[in-house]
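User: Fold this; tokens only.

Assistant: Input:
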Amino acid sequence: MAVTIMDIAKASGKSYPTVSRAMNDHPKISEKTKREIRAVAAKLGYRPSFAGTALKKGRTSTFSIIVPDLADPYYAKFISFFKHAAQEKEFDVVVYDYERRPDLERKYLERMMSGCCDGAAAFITSFLHTHDLVEELWNARIPLAAIGTPHEFAESAKYDWGSIDTDSSVLKILRHLKRQGRRRLVCLQEPQPEEIRCLLSKYLEGLLNRAGLPFSSDSCFILHSRGQNQAEEGFNAGLSLLKNNPEVDMIWARNGFQAYGLLLAAHRCGRKVPEDLAVIINDNTWISRYSVTPLYCLDQHLDELAERTFEVLYGRATSREWEEPRRFLIAADAVIFNEHP
């Protein structure tokens, strides 16, 4: 049977209000009395009720992070920085991995409505299947910070949003590669609804035009075969691309895992990296740092992204005000690892 505040009061000879205040670190209770009461509580095996504590505080002091792939070092790194910021404010962090499944993604967002946490940082793939839920969260005053999400509904839906401005860093890399004589880029893309695919295709076309490189319908390669992991996806995509499109001399991958699959595919196809093929990746993690071949990366400053995301959620969770949605952009930097002189 669980030990209660009343049990502690009887065992310590103190009143119920005194014990309750002591256990909640009330300033009117002396430190000596607090120590005595806590000693009795520990002897009895008292464990505070999470639900009761949350009810008294009016919050759970917990934030959730919803990611598409916990194995991806990009998300692991973000989580690490976010947890550090949360610990400084005595907040806990719960992580949900929706495994790039839209049904799980929606399920975990719906869980926020239950009051299980004070808010969530979510890497939402698209608002096409979560638009109504995002609106419900806003109307219920449950903090949601969408990270790095295509903001096609930014004007019609209310939510906090933070992302990375990669345009200048991508252009820097593309122009650098063009000066080396590169001409044909293909970008690996996750399966998306037609509306999102069109947006991404238009975005890529604009970047290539600004870099002075050609764009075609084949510039976007959709990863229809997911494979058991992202390295396998990169490998399968690389084999298909390099066998059927020998003119391709640049591939833009999602992350280091996909890049490692591409490197193996290039080796199998007799293509040398970086002499015959340049590999660009969206992240800058330990995977890219320890590559033995040159990789072209985007440093998305995950430390700053995580800290600012926490600030947005913490500000909403600890304030009675509910102002307009907050938006912030962080500029990425271009990083080139191990390029031969």
